[in-house]
Amino acid sequence: MVATLVRGLASTAAAAATALVGGAVVTRTGNVPWVRRWSRTNHAGEPVTLLEGPVAVGALAVGTLVGAALGAPPSQVLAVGVAGVGSGLVGAYDDLHGSAQARGFRGHLAALRRGRVTSGTVKIVGVGLSGLAAAVVLGRHRAAGLGLVDVVVDTALVAGTANLVNLLDLRPGRAAKVVVLLAGGLAGAGGGPALGAAVGSLPTDLTARSMLGDCGANALGAATATAAAGTLDRPARLVGLAAVVALNAASERVSFTAVIARTPALAWLDGLGRDPAPGGPVSSEPGPG
């Protein structure tokens, strides 16, 4: 128990330190040509960088390696790494090459029916495959063995959570706070790297100098869900999946920002620590792509 706690704290601290240092660096390199490709404009008309996302993925990887060095179960390390890094890579592709011509699952599927493969479609497939790979790794090391139901549930939970966190990346610090809340209780069970990466991302995110984008939001959401999938029993995972599916479906018709603004407790938490400047970063693609 003590070793697990120490391992979780160490992986969290390593990821947080990496994200803090990386965030400080990328927010000071705006004039470098390749860095400008990652620049976006927020609601207030101010520039922000999406490089917080790649930094968060790097921090996640560092935290995972530290956990492995301290004796984390190989299946846990591999599953979290595959889900987080894989989802982050396809998210980065969407950050750089995505467009607003198709939004949400329905928009991307409609485009696919017309014969057009959007960057969002690539991301949906990539995140799904990353979740599937993580689910297979987890399933092979469960006491009950590999079960098709578990693989399907875990794949959907990882992919759905990755997209849900991305949907919340619409105001400074919002997505990172959600990851902190979700991963906080999983630090000793593989959630430490995601927790640390989210904590380390908050200083520049809350001040609207950077944002996670699809890359960081997808990666941290997928890694957090993978840690949960490796810890919770099947009934708990089914409940979690139902909540994730319901929220993703609701996002097609309901504005999360409007709901948060109308709910005092959520509005307080959402604004906690945020820079008082108006507006905030807009996700490069609010839905799955």
UniProtKB/TrEMBL annotation:
Molecular function via GO: transferase activity
Signal peptide feature range: 1-16
Keyword terms, alphabetized: Signal, Transferase
UniProt name for this protein: UDP-N-acetylmuramyl pentapeptide phosphotransferase/UDP-N-acetylglucosamine-1-phosphate transferase
Originating species: Microlunatus antarcticus
